[in-house]
Specification:
It contains three helices and two strands, in the order H-E-E-H-H. It is mostly helical. It has a two-stranded antiparallel ribbon. The protein starts with a helix and ends in a 13-residue tail after the last helix.
Length: 121
């Protein structure tokens, strides 16, 4: 499920074409009918994933750059790379943060029978 999310596919069934346009998901998966937004305010989790992953990648780059060039750290280049990363990564991660959030949510709250489109009580 993680690799499906990373490749912008439905984390549940692996279907392609789950986005209507860049960063905009269909309401339901065209492959399995899974409703992507499970509740009101669902995408706040996606924003947290987006910023969290961007912060982790920025810190990893900054600390690696500092450690590899110590004691003559090129601070200006490192800060410039940091600015580019902190602007570019959230943009690049935006659609992935949604599919990664769906993956994480499904890991924590598995797909219930009641949520399935074909469910009949
Ligand atoms: Zn699906």
């Amino acid at each position: 499920m993680f690799w499906r999310a990373l490749r912008l596919r439905c984390p549940l069934c692996g279907a392609r074409g789950i986005f209507t346009r860049w960063g905009q998901l269909h309401d339901r998966c065209p492959g399995c009918g899974y409703s992507f937004a499970r509740e009101e305010g669902y995408w706040v989790g996606g924003m947290i994933v987006n910023l969290g992953v961007a912060q982790i990648l920025f810190m990893a780059t900054f600390l690696t750059g500092t450690a590899l060039t110590w004691p003559d750290v090129p601070w200006t280049a490192l800060i410039a790379a940091g600015v580019v990363l902190m602007v570019g990564l959230p943009i690049w991660l935006y659609p992935r943060s949604k599919t990664l959030w769906i993956w994480l949510d499904l890991r924590l709250h598995p797909y219930a029978d009641e949520e399935r489109p074909e469910y009949r009580p």
